[in-house]
Write a structure and sequence with these properties.
heterodimer; A: Rossmann fold; 4-stranded antiparallel β-sheet; 17 strands; B: mainly alpha; 3-methyladenine DNA Glycosylase II, Chain A, domain 3; Alpha-Beta Plaits; two-stranded antiparallel ribbon; two-stranded antiparallel sheet; iron-sulfur (chain A); repeat (chain A); metal ion binding (chain A); translocase (chain A)
């Protein structure tokens, strides 16, 4: 076991509220009648359907292929018939609809023939990445970035450390904790594959010290695996947001990931524990990513716990299985209390990035109108990214977006620490999210207007060219006409002259 | 006395040569301020400002001939950006030119299109595809929503529809206008 080498600035000590959902083992959510699968459950381009309405599909069959580089495939979580390919409500803060594939399950849950890899050590890193991409694996910590890209360090980088993120710092969420307790073996399967693919010199499994059961389960599993070399468990202090990638790296290695940089720039690749488990299943068992463990907890949940749930299962069915006091269409939180967002609607499906569903929070503060900022500076003390939230707030509020960029708005990880400590209850993160999406929108518009300008100028040039060509043609035609006219006249003149000579001759 | 005059004359000549050389070598083509203004304008090419496109309007602004508040598609944010660039006071949008509207996209009702090519000729960014007596269609990604194709259509088959948001282009609302209900705090 190794010791953490650093810490990050700011952060909070929060009450974990994790006991409620760790009292019972992971349970399987019953198979739902319909599964709704959004085509985009990851960062990047949406997958493209390769099935049609009415097709019969088997469990694990690919139903949409990856489009472009930053994209992954999508699979049928159970056997059944494709019922629709259309726009459906998705779990997104906008409440907008997006293209989804709907499967009506037949209840047989019949697998497509699985093709496990016998010995992954015989395979090249490229082949492993390809399988992981085809298996639809994305980061299961919450962001949903395609994992195969993070397993490709590129030719210019050496991977010093593969970091497994088991911090799970946000209150209430326990899906990684339960995975560690029950499936440490499976996680290590994936870790071995990842280490092989990345050729990482050492591996650190970082776990917060509020998960002693998880740590001991992992220690046991690790002791039984002498072939995993240079691998150690690091127990890190519980502090929010240690689970943030850059924060965790700072805690574990004492090094900072540069602003606008990636962990690979300092020789580190980090993956979530759940992702490692999914990689192990994909390679060693030939199973694509079709389910995940979702924490269902909160004051209104009767049987809080962790549920292995197929993607596409309506959240309402999951909540019904866990039994809640929630009324139909009552809002719930997707994610944790700090970074999650409110959702309502019963037909929203569980997706690859859904780590927790929270119904009812302990001692929820009543919503109140924000008071003016008193410039106390508490937000700056709490910020784990060393930003100045109050400056960012003023500039976001004034829509002075260039200034927000100068204050490194895009280094904000939206952890919500500043919101939490603000004595005036200003929704700071909402301002930052607003400013970020506005800036991204402006950039999109700029690109579009650049394109429009180019097309406009090209069109003007084309019209000008056409005009010149027309003039040229007219000129040529005129010249030709004039030439033929002159020729005719000449001939006529010659004829006339000949006539006159003839008459003269006659007269003579 | 004479040495001083000769020295100064020589110096003047040398300096003059350097300046002359620099003015040729480092000549700035065009007017950069026009480019900067043009960059801020939304490139809709709609002509609502009474100029034939964004560039001519930018040239007119640079020459100080017109106000900066004649661009309805750009709206308030464009006027603000122009005011910042030119260091003048922002003004409200000139209503004579039009009003700020949500972004729209031209859509051709393909059943009604008779293939007259009039809209193709009207489109300032060549975003309409088609040929004489064949159905036309709008390349949605290239359309700037300028509405110039609506007027010439003899069968009135072009509609301007609002650009639908999708989760990728969706923007968080401004919290100072809408009080967001965020998750409770533990």
């Amino acid at each position: 076991m190794s010791k953490p080498l650093g810490s990050f600035p700011g952060g909070l000590k929060l009450n974990g509220h994790k006991k409620r959902s760790t009292q019972s083992p992971i349970r399987k959510t019953p198979l739902a009648k319909t599964l709704i699968l959004p085509l985009q459950q990851h960062i990047g381009a949406a997958a493209v359907p390769i099935v049609e309405v009415g097709d019969k599909v088997l469990k694990g069959q690919r139903i949409a292929r990856a489009e472009g580089h930053v994209s992954v495939c999508l699979h049928a979580p159970s056997s059944g018939t494709i019922k629709a390919i259309d726009e459906q409500a998705i779990p997104h803060p906008s409440g907008l609809n997006a293209p989804c594939i709907t499967i009506e399950t037949d209840g047989e849950d019949q697998w497509l023939e699985r093709q496990p890899v016998k010995n992954f050590r015989d395979m090249s890193a490229h082949e492993i990445r390809q399988i992981i991409r085809d298996a639809g694996i994305v980061g299961l910590g919450g962001a949903g970035f395609p994992s195969f890209i993070k397993l490709n360090p590129g030719v210019h980088h050496d991977v010093e450390t593969l970091l497994l993120n088991g911090a799970e710092c946000e209150p209430y969420i326990t899906c990684d904790d339960m995975l560690l307790r029950e499936r440490a073996e499976g996680i290590l399967d994936g870790v071995e594959i990842m280490q092989h693919a990345l050729r990482a010199r050492n591996v650190i499994l970082a776990i917060e010290d509020n998960k002693p059961e998880g740590v001991s389960a992992m220690e046991l599993a690790l002791a039984a695996r002498p072939q995993l070399q240079n691998t150690s468990i690091m127990v890190i202090p519980t502090r929010y947001p240690t689970g943030g990638e850059k924060q965790l790296i700072q805690v574990v290695t004492g090094k900072q990931v540069p602003s606008n940089g990636l962990p690979i720039d300092i020789g580190i690749v980090s993956h979530n524990m759940g992702t490692a488990y999914a990689v192990g299943r994909a390679i060693n068992h030939g199973e694509p990513l079709i389910s995940r463990i979702v924490t269902v907890t909160g004051t209104d949940v009767t049987h809080a716990g962790n549920f292995e749930t197929l993607f596409g299962t309506p959240i309402s069915e999951l909540l019904a299985f866990a039994e809640t006091k929630r009324q139909p269409d009552e809002p719930f939180i997707l994610g944790g209390p700090m970074m999650g967002f409110n959702l309502s609607g019963d037909n929203l499906p569980v997706t690859k990035t859904a780590n927790c569903i929270l119904v009812g929070v302990d001692d929820a503060a009543p919503a109140s109108e924000p008071l003016p900022c008193i410039r106390c500076g508490d937000c700056a003390t709490a910020c784990p990214a060393s930003l100045l939230p109050q400056q960012l707030y003023w500039h976001s509020r004034a829509k002075d977006f260039d200034q927000t960029r100068d204050y490194n708005l895009f280094d904000c990880i939206e952890c919500g620490c500043c919101d939490y400590v603000c004595p005036s209850k200003i929704p700071l993160v909402s301002y930052f999210r607003f400013a970020k999406t506005e800036i991204m929108n402006q950039e999109r518009e700029h690109q579009k207007s650049d394109l429009a300008r180019e097309r406009f100028e090209t069109r003007l040039a084309r019209l000008e060219r056409e005009k010149q060509e027309k003039e040229e043609r007219q000129r040529q035609r005129k010249a030709a006409l004039a030439a033929s006219k002159a020729k005719k006249e000449k001939q006529e003149q010659a004829a006339a002259e000949a006539d006159t000579t003839a008459t003269e001759n006659k007269e003579n | 006395m004479l040495t001083a005059i000769i020295a100064i004359t020589l110096l003047a000549l040398v300096m003059g040569l350097i300046l002359g050389f620099a003015s040729i070598k480092f000549k700035v083509e065009g007017d950069p301020i026009v480019d900067q203004i043009d960059k801020i304008l939304p490139q809709t090419q709609c002509g609502q400002c009474s100029f034939a496109g964004c560039r001519p309007y930018a040239e007119a602004i640079a020459a100080g001939e017109v106000d900066i508040n004649r661009c309805p598609p750009g709206g308030e944010s464009t006027i603000q950006a122009l005011a910042d660039l030119l260091d003048v006071e922002p003004k409200p949008l000139d209503e004579e030119c039009g009003v700020e509207k949500p972004k729209t996209l031209a859509v051709i009702d393909e059943d009604r299109c008779i293939g007259c090519t009039l809209c193709i000729q009207a489109c300032p960014v060549d975003a309409i595809l088609g040929a004489a007596k064949h159905m036309h269609t709008v390349i949605a990604d290239e359309c700037t929503g300028c509405e110039l194709c609506v007027e010439p259509c003899p069968v009135d088959c072009i509609d301007m529809v609002e650009v639908a948001q999708n989760p990728n282009t969706w923007r968080w609302p401004d919290p100072s206008h809408v009080q967001l209900e965020r998750g409770g705090r533990s």
